[in-house]
From TrEMBL:
Family: Belongs to the IS21/IS1162 putative ATP-binding protein family.
Keyword Nucleotide-binding found: yes
Regions that span the bilayer: none
Keyword Transcription regulation: no
Pfam families, sorted: IstB_IS21
All residue ranges annotated as the AAA+ ATPase domain in the record: 100-235
Source species of the chain: bioreactor metagenome
UniProt keyword annotations, A-Z: ATP-binding, Nucleotide-binding
The name this protein goes by in its record: IS21 family transposase ISBf1
Residues making up the signal peptide according to the UniProt record: none
A GO biological-process term: DNA replication
GO molecular function: ATP binding
InterPro entries per the UniProt record, alphabetical: AAA+_ATPase, DNAC/IstB-like, IstB, IstB_ATP-bd, P-loop_NTPase
């Protein structure tokens, strides 16, 4: 094999071409067997690097998205809920709404698939190369509180501020104090024109006002979320309760 390989690897490391550096031996062997033209070989060389980088970026996007374990919409069971039929779900999965900066608000009782659907759409977005993040409302509020005093929170805030899709789970499930509510509004007001949101909630607009203890603030938040938004009301029994797990054998739900 070529005496230049060690030096090629050093140069690749220096130039941060890890895909080429780690695979140069195999790439040269293939070239010896296939005898490509010079331009074809260079094309294959850099195509390999691009492919490796895209794979690493995909893994990083998935890690930062922090999706729940269950998010495969191919396995979504429509028999447990109503409000979103297979055709509508497939239309949402095309992500045209995301390109147009629309929001989705999923409402309904616990266990009707709000989190599952939102996480699945988030997974589709990550797979397509979008910057998408799944956070519950407590995560968001914690980041907003700490962004000026914590480096990790500052990095997280920057990610969220530059996101193309933010999924916020369980909005207004618990009361939010006025200071946190104001921080949340300032953030949403900052990004809502350039970022799409998927909101899951089991609270009505009137209950948002009670959770925030501020009707004006609740109205302002809803105004921004609902300006360009598809509302989806899910109904049905809890999937988790219908498929309750047990440690005892032969015990029925």
């Amino acid at each position: 094999m070529s005496q230049y390989i060690p030096q090629i690897k050093k140069h690749a490391t220096r130039l941060r071409l890890s895909g080429i550096g780690s695979n140069i031996t195999n790439l040269l062997l293939e070239a010896q067997n296939d005898a490509p033209s010079y331009d074809e070989f260079v094309f294959k060389l850099f195509s390999h690097e691009v492919k490796e980088r895209e794979a690493k970026q995909q893994l990083l996007r998935m890690k930062l998205a922090r999706l729940p374990v269950n998010h495969d919409l191919e396995q979504y069971d429509h028999s447990f809920t109503s409000g979103l039929n297979p055709t509508q779900l497939n239309q949402l999965r095309e992500l045209n709404w995301l390109d147009q900066c629309y929001n989705i608000m999923l409402t309904g009782p616990s266990g009707t698939g709000k989190t599952y659907i939102s996480a699945g759409l988030g997974f589709d977005a990550v797979q397509r190369g979008y910057k998408a993040y799944f956070r519950n409302i407590s995560d968001i509020l914690s980041t907003l509180r700490l962004k000026d005093v914590s480096q990790n929170a500052a990095k997280e805030f920057k990610r969220l501020a530059e996101a193309q899709l933010i999924i916020i789970d369980d909005v207004m499930t618990l009361p939010v104090n006025r200071e946190d509510g104001n921080r949340f509004f300032v953030f949403i007001n900052q990004v809502y024109e350039t970022t799409s949101f998927i909101i899951t909630t089991n609270k009505s607009p009137a209950e948002w006002a009670r959770s925030l203890d501020d009707e004006t603030l609740a109205t302002a938040l809803l105004d921004r979320f609902l300006y360009k938004c598809q509302l989806i009301q899910l109904k049905g029994k809890s999937y988790r309760m219908q498929n309750r797990k047990t440690i005892f054998e032969n015990e029925k739900n």
